[in-house]
Amino acid sequence: xxxxxxxxxxxxxxxxxxxxxxxxxxxxxxxxxxxxxxxxxxxxxxxxxxxxxxxxxxxxxxxxxxxxxxxxxxxxxxxxxxxxxxxxxxxxxxxxxxxxxxxxxxxxxxxxxxxxxxxxxxxxxxxxxxxxxxxxxxxxxxxxxxxxxxxxxxxxxxxxxxxxxxxxxxxxxxxxxxxxxxxxxxxxxxxxxxxxxxxxxxxxxxxxxxxxxxxxxxxxxxxxxxxxxxxxxxxxxxxxxxxxxxxxxxxxxxxxxxxxx
Length: 261
Hints:
single chain, 20% strand, 42% helix, alpha+beta, 5-stranded mixed beta sheet, 6-stranded antiparallel beta sheet
């Protein structure tokens, strides 16, 4: 893919299929990439973090920075954590979203003549053992296996973190609802006692400190049950989040990003 003369640098979506061919112009100095509503470039992918990465443009140069995303940001199958300048033809991946970077005509020309540029990095890899030279490609197969395993595990970690967040929010909702029901029953009981005291009458024997009945059970006790269930769900979500964090550290330790050869 060659840049259009005079065009701005841009990204072209390669995957998923429903967005394939979509062009994203990089015509601003700062662009936020992610799933959240405040992002400039949005992707509806559950594995893409709400604020996944940042694109910065300086003249015709474009720089990419991962923002501690769950699934990671990859350039040409290599994870990136710091700030990295994109070269013409680079393949950028955010979780399952894959894009090709197309530089402006001027920048692409600089890349083609620059030693070690994107054109050199994107040249086809020769897997013929007999044609290896200087051991350049002797670890390609192993490195690809490591990256595939790493990518698979990181996706599982991202899915677990998403599930943990949903559980925590669901548990919080149950807890708030339960305490609200219990508080409502207590307030009604206090109000009835206060009214009886002011009128000099005996409080009604049907008045309960646990409120009215809900399905044959006092609403206050139902509220306590909901709050207990909510607290359990919150704890479960926190445990899942801790497990996901631990698994990510294990992946980083056991499947490190291969060094370029």
